[in-house]
Amino acid sequence: MANNSEVYEAIDAATEALEKLQSARKRLKSAERWGVFDIMGGGFFSTLIKRRKMLNAQRDMDEARIALENFRDQLDDVFDLDLKLDDFLSFSDYFFEGLVFADVVVQGRISEAISKVDRNIRVIEKIKKQLQDLLNE
């Protein structure tokens, strides 16, 4: 069993990862809304706004990937397990490569990213709760 300081460090890393994922989710949802507007004929400016939102989401996803790597490292100090975070670490690397896709394809990638972020948020929240329960034993 890990000592309490390792559990606290893992909880802190989980909190940071959740904050980064939630920020990425918020930006992705905004890009998704602009993407719908763009598909419906929003025009040049809606395309520019959507792309700016997507780039901001990509930055947030990169930060989330770093936070997830740190969380996984901290978690290894507490448990001996191989944490799978829905392939988010590799997914965020290729997410917005080649922005010159059809709007519908880009919209599909945004929706896929939101689903992956949501699943990872649920996994980390569950693990964080288990870590907090360890401290209360």
Task: State the gist of this model.
81% of the residues lie in helices and 0% in strands. It is mainly alpha-helical.
Give the topology, please:
Layout: H1 4-39, H2 44-78, H3 88-94, H4 103-135
Helix pairs in contact: 1-2, 1-4, 2-3
SSE sequence, one letter per element: HHHH
- Quickly name the level 1 CATH class: Mainly Alpha
Task: Work out the radius of gyration.
Answer: 17 Å
* SS content category: mainly alpha
Q: How many DSSP H or I helices? A: 4
Shape: elongated
Distance between the termini: 12 Å
Low-confidence stretches: none
Structure description:
The chain is an all-alpha fold. It has a single domain (4-135), classed as Up-down Bundle (Four Helix Bundle (Hemerythrin (Met), subunit A)), CATH 1.20.120. The protein is built from four helices and no strands. It has helices at 4-39, 44-78, 88-94, 103-135.
Give short descriptive properties of this protein.
single chain; 137 residues; mainly alpha; Four Helix Bundle (Hemerythrin (Met), subunit A); 4 helices; elongated
